[in-house]
Amino acid sequence: MERNGRSLPHTVLLSIRGRNARKALSTPRKRINGAEIVVASYNVHKCIGTDRRFDPERTARVIREISPDVIALQEADNRFGDRAGLLDLARLELETGLVPVPVLGNGKAHGWRGNVLLIKRGTVRDVHQIKLPGLEPRGALVAEIDLDEQRTLRVIAAHLGLLRRWRSEQARVVHDIMSSADERPTLLLGDLNEWRLGTRSALNTLHTTFGPSPPAVPTFPSGLPVLALDRIMGNRHGMVSAVEAHDTPLSRVASDHLPLTAYVHL
User: Fold this and answer.
1) Can you tell me the distance from the alpha carbon of 181 to that of 90, in angstroms, rounded to the nearest whole number?
2) Where are the alpha helices (DSSP H) in the chain?
3) pTM of the model
4) Measured between alpha carbons, how far is residue 28 from residues 80, 85, 159, 246 in Å?
5) Domains, the chain, ordered by start
6) Cα separation of 229 and 4, whole Å?
7) Rounded CA separation 255/163 (Å)
8) Each residue of 190-223: pLDDT tens digit?
9) Position with higher pLDDT, 20 vs 41
10) For the CA atoms of 49, 53, 56, 58, what is the dihedral angle to 10 degrees?
């Protein structure tokens, strides 16, 4: 039980009760004449589905369903050994137009400590690979992207740890990347592994920069999502809207997480 904030059983109960209401209220939405972009965060669980099958093609099909302009993937590489990437990124680019943000010294890996950032358009101006503290090999990928001649976006793709102590330290590192509240438009995408909303939540560290968290959207476990482990956050009011889980028959089995999607207005 949690002394501060809601307990895990209480959070699970509320999520189950609210699931049908969220589905009833959700309606398909179209982007507004290119003024909005579709972003997503997806923990692909090393392309192993809830049926325990390793199926990278199935993972790619879920990404094609989403049709994002920007997507952050977690657990897209083998965790041990040569950390080889698991997806066919060349084929994914041909089918979706999504191009991986380049990283240095990654060997056979797709990304940085399992984090892969893919974009459909724009020019990558700068990339930073951040090592996050903790016992697990966690990291964050920070990319500066010129979407066109007038619009620039910074994206922080991160995967925080399972242990609360280290998760708080890792959130502090992410917070420190942002030097001031009036910085350029910035998105935080990733599996933050934080379901708590009380005083012990690592999300509190991010509120100074990203403001109050958008409504929690359960994405885990994919078959019956009750925990909001995945997040999409922006550093400007009204920047992020229509946050929802991409809940389809395919996504429910392709990973233990559902993808999280949102519209971003720049």
Assistant:
1) 37
2) 8-25, 56-66, 89-96, 164-177, 203-210, 249-254
3) 0.87
4) 40, 33, 28, 11
5) 36-265 (3.60.10.10)
6) 18
7) 21
8) 999 998 777 778 888 888 888 776 678 999 999 9
9) 41
10) -60
